[in-house]
Task: inverse folding
């Protein structure tokens, strides 16, 4: 039994020192109680009369007195474990924080990207609307200038007619008194054949220099090369617009004017689809094929035209037929004005 006690004490005290005061196994690992009496280890282990109050601090039943270093080792191990756990928890919290920040930044970048795309789309729509508005204003201004030019010519014609009538009236009075012929009609009043010839000479409409008339509209071919918009501006400066061959007769007349120049070039006419691809419009704002031509369905497109071959062919050229072409290309052009 003493050998067993000694082995148990060696397990508790790695240094090999037993719970007693001596070295090696001993038959008596006695202890002193709190009352001052000494009892053996066997008595301490098995005696029911020994209470925990009689056992001094540091005594381990069956082993003997414990070493103070045991508590320190245990406390140190617990502190180290707590420190390691604290570091692990802190690292986990830090990792969670980093992940949260990364996800937040990613969401922010995605939101900014979506906002940029929406702003780009809105700006594109705005630019398109402004461009369409500019084109409409340009067409309206062109129509206004054409109307003003026609009004000025009409005013000039009326003024000439008024002068002719006023100048003819005294001449009729001087020629003699009013006479009545056998059939009861008056003679000597304005309205005779001579006066009508004079008046119609004043009323006869004439075209500007270089223009030729067809169906009371004057046309002129320009063999100078300009873009579509520059050509339209030149025509507006003459008081007109780019020619609009709405029927086969006008189209044939314009083609004959181009052949008179001995030129095999193409010439701009006032037809385009700059507002919306595929919807061809005349410069006066009416759609191609609208009533006013041959049954309202006339067009003279060449074979496989229009084809928008380059993707930016929005203006029409006249040659043997009509061809769509890039509006920024420099070509000849045909103007029309009212006499």
Result:
């Amino acid at each position: 039994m003493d050998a067993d006690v000694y082995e148990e004490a060696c397990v508790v005290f790695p240094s090999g020192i037993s719970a007693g005061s001596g070295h090696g196994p001993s038959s008596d690992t006695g202890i002193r109680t709190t009352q001052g009496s000494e009892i053996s280890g066997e008595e301490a282990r098995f005696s029911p009369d020994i209470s925990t109050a009689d056992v001094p601090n540091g005594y381990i039943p069956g082993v003997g007195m414990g070493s103070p270093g045991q508590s320190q080792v245990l406390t140190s191990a617990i502190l180290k474990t707590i420190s390691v756990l604290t570091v692990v928890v802190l690292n986990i919290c830090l990792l969670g924080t980093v992940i949260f920040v990364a996800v937040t930044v990613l969401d922010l970048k995605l939101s900014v990207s979506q906002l940029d795309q929406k702003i780009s789309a809105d700006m594109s729509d705005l630019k398109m609307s402004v461009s369409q508005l500019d084109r409409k204003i340009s067409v309206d201004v062109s129509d206004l200038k054409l109307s003003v030019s026609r009004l000025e010519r009409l005013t000039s014609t009326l003024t000439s007619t008024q002068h002719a009538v006023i100048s003819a009236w005294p001449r009729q009075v001087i020629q003699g008194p009013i006479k009545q012929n056998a059939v009861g009609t008056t003679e000597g009043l304005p309205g005779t054949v001579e006066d009508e010839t004079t008046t119609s000479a004043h009323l006869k409409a004439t075209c500007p220099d270089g223009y030729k008339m067809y169906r009371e509209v004057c046309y002129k071919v320009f063999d100078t090369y300009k873009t579509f918009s520059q050509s339209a501006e030149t025509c507006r400066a003459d008081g007109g617009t780019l020619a609009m061959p709405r029927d086969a007769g006008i189209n044939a007349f314009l083609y004959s004017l181009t052949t008179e120049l001995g030129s095999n070039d193409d010439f701009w006419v006032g037809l385009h689809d700059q507002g919306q691809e595929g919807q061809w419009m005349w410069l006066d704002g009416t759609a191609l094929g609208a009533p006013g031509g041959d049954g309202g369905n006339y067009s003279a497109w060449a074979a496989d035209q229009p084809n928008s071959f380059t993707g930016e062919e929005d203006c029409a050229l006249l040659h043997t037929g009509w061809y769509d072409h890039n509006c920024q290309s420099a070509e000849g052009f045909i103007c029309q004005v009212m006499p």
